[in-house]
């Protein structure tokens, strides 16, 4: 079959790879300039920041096998970090016992974006391809429609390009976008509406010198309870990173939602103040930038690994189908590809 996959995040790439391995012709359309979605690294003059997913873990046997393959190929390495816990209330922070769990955390090298690049290698991925609509344009064997995709021209607001025809379409995008593409006619849109994704503001800060933080309290990474912050991590503590004092800061989902459309400079100032409170340092960064993830965390996922309408040959996948981890995105994509292959 000729299959279109919308979205080159982990779910879309995993789905596309499995479909290609099964002998299908697949084109992946990605609106940004690179693969991986939220498994991302931003390159700056002070070094790289993993401003989305901080690491991955592996529990399911299939994903453990995939992680072992990536490790063997040098795409990922273990991050032997001891995560601390901070209770932050009303602008103050108090230490909790560090995590001593046995969960092995893996990170891409030299950045998390290495994972998406490896997954996209050898696939037909069209970047800067913003799909805005899919249309059923004809019927093929068995009466199922074939599909064309409307792509927005990157240099204008005109629907300039029609991509197609495809025998099946996969929407490997956030639940709300999947619903817009597929609609409610098949029930997939109604099911996707049950998923709930929350936003996250990310603050990326670099310092000229190591900060005088209370490292016994903070360590190299910490989950933060209460207040504005949810997570802080020292980028240079990850393997094969460029030296330098760089920190990635993630805000709490509820706080991010409340301030989603605030002035970015105000958000930056508030998050930097919260970082100072959490770490006990007053040093000012030489680099500071924000990234707004509108659909960062799947707080309410579905009971299905994926969504698929065999009659119309449209489906959706993503971490929001089964959980919120990188592993969930990969498993969702693979499961949908398996279902498509078995449908003939």
Can you tell me about this structure?
This protein has 344 residues and is of the alpha/beta class. Helix 1 runs parallel beside helix 10. The chain has two domains: 1-33 and 127-194 and 302-344, 3-Layer(bba) Sandwich (FAD/NAD(P)-binding domain), CATH 3.50.50.60; 39-114 and 196-300, Polyamine Oxidase, Chain A, domain 2 (Alpha-Beta Complex). The chain has helices at residues 10-21, 61-72, 113-120, 175-182, 188-192, 215-218, 253-258, 264-279, 319-322, 326-343; strands spanning 2-6, 25-29, 42-44, 47-49, 76-78, 84-89, 92-96, 106-108, 124-126, 130-139, 145-152, 159-166, 168-171, 196-207, 221-225, 229-234, 245-251, 287-300, 307-309, 314-316. The model has no long low-confidence stretch (mean pLDDT 90). Helices cover 27% and strands 34% of the residues.
Keyphrases for this structure?
single chain; 344 residues; alpha/beta; FAD/NAD(P)-binding domain; Polyamine Oxidase, Chain A, domain 2; 2 domains; 7-stranded mixed β-sheet; 6-stranded mixed β-sheet; 10 helices; globular
In short:
It is built from 10 helices and 20 strands. By secondary structure, the chain is an alpha/beta fold.
């Amino acid at each position: 079959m000729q299959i279109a996959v919308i979205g080159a995040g982990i779910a879309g790439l995993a789905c596309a790879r499995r479909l290609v391995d099964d002998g299908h012709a697949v084109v992946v359309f990605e609106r940004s300039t690179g693969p991986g979605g939220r498994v991302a690294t931003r390159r700056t003059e002070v070094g790289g920041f993993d401003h989305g997913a901080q690491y991955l873990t592996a529990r399911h046997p299939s994903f453990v096998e995939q992680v072992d393959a990536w490790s063997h190929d040098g795409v990922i390495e273990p991050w032997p970090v001891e995560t601390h816990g901070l209770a932050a209330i009303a602008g103050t922070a108090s230490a909790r016992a560090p995590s001593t769990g046995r969960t092995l955390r893996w990170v891409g090298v030299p950045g998390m974006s290495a994972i998406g690049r490896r997954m996209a290698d050898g696939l037909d991925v069209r970047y800067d391809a913003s799909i805005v609509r899919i249309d059923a344009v004809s019927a093929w064997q068995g009466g199922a429609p074939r599909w064309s995709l409307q792509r927005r021209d990157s240099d204008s607001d005109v629907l300039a390009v029609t991509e197609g025809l495809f025998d099946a379409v996969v929407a490997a995008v956030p639940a709300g976008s999947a619903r817009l593409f597929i609609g409610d006619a098949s029930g997939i849109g109604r099911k996707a509406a049950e998923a709930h994704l929350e936003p996250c503001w990310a603050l990326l800060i670099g310092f000229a010198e190591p900060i005088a933080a209370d490292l016994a309290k903070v360590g190299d990474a910490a989950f933060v309870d209460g207040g504005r912050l949810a997570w802080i991590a020292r980028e240079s503590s990850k393997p094969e990173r460029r030296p330098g004092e760089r920190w990635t800061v993630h805000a709490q989902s509820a706080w991010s939602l409340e301030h989603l459309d605030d002035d970015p400079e105000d958000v930056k100032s508030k998050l930097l103040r919260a970082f100072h409170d959490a770490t006990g340092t007053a040093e000012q960064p030489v680099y500071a930038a924000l990234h707004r993830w509108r659909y960062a965390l799947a707080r309410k996922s579905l009971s299905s690994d994926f969504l698929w309408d065999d009659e119309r040959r449209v489906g959706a996948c993503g971490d929001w189908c089964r959980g919120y981890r990188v592993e969930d995105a990969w498993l969702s994509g693979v499961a949908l590809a398996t279902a498509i292959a078995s449908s003939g």
